[in-house]
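yo

u said u wanted the structure for the complex thing, so here. seqs first:
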Amino acid sequence: MISVALRNLRHRPGGFVATFLSAFLGATLLMAFASLLDTSRGADSASASSLATTAGVGGGWCLVIVAFAVTSTLSLAVRQRADQITLLHRVGAARRQLRRMIVGESAAVALIASAVAVPAGLALGRVLLQLLRNTGQAAESIDYAFGPIALSVGFGVTLLGALIAGIAAARRTTTPQGLGFSLGDPPSARRRPRARRLFAALFLLIGANCAVLTATLMDGKGIDAMQTAGQAGIWAAIGLALLAPELLRLVTAVLAVPVRAIGGVAGELALLTVHSRARQLASAVMPVLIFTGVATGTVYMQAIENKAAAGQVEPDYAQDIKTLNYVVVGMITLFVAIMLINTLIAATARRRQEFAQQRLAGATRGQLLAMVALEGLLVTVTGALGGTAAAMFTILPFGAARADRIWPESTPAAYLTILAIAVALTAAAMLGATRRTVRGPATAAVHAG
Amino acid sequence: MTDAVYLESLSKTYDGTVVALDGVTAAFAAGSFTAVMGPSGSGKSTLLQCAAGLDRPTAGRVVIDGTELTATSDTEMTKFRRLRVGFVFQDYNLLPSLTVEQNVVLPVRLAGRRPDRRRVKEIIDQLGLGDRRHATPEKLSGGQRQRVAVARALITEPAVIFADEPTGALDMRSAREVLALLRTAVHQYGRTVVMVTHDPLAAAHADAVLFLADGRLAGSLRAPTVDAVAERLAHLGDTTRGIGALA
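structre next:
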C-alpha cells in the first residue's frame, strides 16, 4: 500500500498542495525558532536567555498553529478522496492497508516538506537573529548556528504532527460507515457533538481562568501580564471555534429575516444550506474566528502595552515581545489564509453536483453566486463575532491589569483592517471556487458528481 | 397544430472531432408525446440536451414555442427554460435539502414568482404525494422521487417537458406509473413531452417514436407497440438513413 501512497503523491499532487504548504511553512518557522536555541549554546548568558525566550514563545505558537493547520488540511485532503478510497476498498484493499496508505502519504508529504524547509528555516533563523541583534537583545558577536535542535524539532514535530493527523484521518475515513456510503455521497453520520461541546467548555473555562488571573494576580506586573492575557484569548478562540456549528446556527437564525429580504430565493437557499450543511460551513467559520480573535487580541494588547509603557522603564525583553507579537499575528494571518482557502475551495468543489442540480432546476449562475455570497456573509459574521468575543478575553483583563482601564483607548482602525482581511479572504475563496465550479454545462456536472 | 419544439439542422461536435449530432431536423407538435430512441452513442441524449438548452449545439437552430433558444446567452436561456421547459431526469435531480413541496415550487421561486398554493396542492395531490409533501427526497422511494420530478416539471405549465430516461432507475411498476403520468399530462392537460429512452416498453407509451443512429435520424414509427419498436431497433443498422421529419 505504501507504493500506492507514493503513486498517489506522484500522480495527483494537487490534492496535497495545501497540506504540503502548511507543513512546509510550519517546519520553516519551527526550524527558524529552534535554531535560536542552537545559537544560544555559544552565547553569553544574557543573550542566551533572550534567545531562549524568543524561541520558546515563537516556537510554542508555531506548534499550536502547525498542529491545527496540518490536521485540517490533511483531513480535508483525505476526505476529498473518499471516492477513491471506497473504490480501493471495493476492489479488495483491506481497511488496514487503506490506513497504511493514508498514513504513508502523510508521512511522505511531511518528510518532503521538512526537507524543503531546511534552507528556508536557515534563512529565516538568520533574519530572526539579526532582529534580536538590532534591538540589542543579542550580542553582535554571536554566531548563527543551525544545528541538531533546529533539525530535530523541525523534522520531528512536523513528522509527528502529520503522522497523528494521518492516523486520525485514516481511522475516520475507513470506518465501516465511512466506506459504506455510496460514491459521491457525503457521510451523513454526525460526529460526537457532546465531546466537542465538552472540550469547547473546557477551553473556554481555561480561557476565563487566564483572564481572571490576568486581571487579579497579574495586576501591576506590567508587561508580564501578557503571558496570561495572550493565552486567555487563544484558549477562548479555540473553545469558541469548537462551537462553530452552534454559533453559525445562532447567527443564521438572527439574520434569517434580512438575508431573505436581501437575497430573495437565493437568500432562502443560502439559509437552507446553512441548515443542512452546518458542519461543512462551520469548518470555514473556525479559521475566520481564530484569525479575528488572535489578531485582534494580540494587536490591541500590544497597543495597550505601548501606551502604558510610554515614559516608563521597560524590562529589556519588552522589545522582543513586541517584535514577537507582530510576528505571531503575521504568521497566523498566513496560516489562516491557507486553511481558509483550502477549506472553502474543497467544500465548494464538493458542491459541484448540488450547483448543477440547482441550475437544472432553473437557477442562473448569478443566483448561485448570490446564494454562495450570502452563505459567506453568514460565515464571516459568525467568525468575526466569535473572534471579537475571544479577543475580549485578552484585551479587557490586560487593560485592567496594565492600564487600569478595561476598554482600550486605541482607534478601531486595526480592528477594521482585521475584519476587512477576513471578509476579503472568505469572499475571494468562496466566490472564486464557485465561479469555477459552475463553469460549463450543468448536465455534465450532475453526472460527474 | 403549431410546433412546441422545432429543431433545424442541429449538429453537435465534441472537441472538434467526435460527431454526436449530424444535421438533425425534427418538429414536435404541441400536445404530442414522442419517444426518441437509438442505441447508446446514437446522440439521443445530446439531442435532448441541445433541444432543452442545457447544451449548445455546434450548428443549427432550436425553436421552442416560437422563441429561438440558440440565439441567447446562458443566463437568458436559464430564465427561459425555468418557465417554458420542464425536465424529468433519470436520476431525479431533486435537491436533497428541500422538501417535496419546496422541490416542486423551486423553478417558480427561482423565477421570482409566488407559487399558486392551490395549484401546487392540486398537482402534488394528483401525483399521489399529498401525504409526503413535507418529506425530503431521501425518505421517498424511486417511483415517488420521479413523481416529484414530474410535478416539478408540470408546475410552470411549460411548452414542453423533456424526459431523459425517466424510467431508467425504476422498477417495472413504478416505471409504468410514471409513464402513465406523462401520458396523462399530454392527453388530459395538453402538455408536450419529448422522452429519450432505450427501453421499447417505455417507448410504447408514446404516440410516436423517432429513431436515431450515429447522430442522424433513422426513421420514425407512429402508434408504436413494444414489438414493433424492438423490431425496428434491432434492424436500425440495416435501414437506409432516411430523413424522417415528424409532423
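The helical segments of chain B are 44-51, 74-84, 100-110, 117-126, 142-154, 172-187, 200-203, 226-234. The mean pLDDT of chain B is 87.
cya
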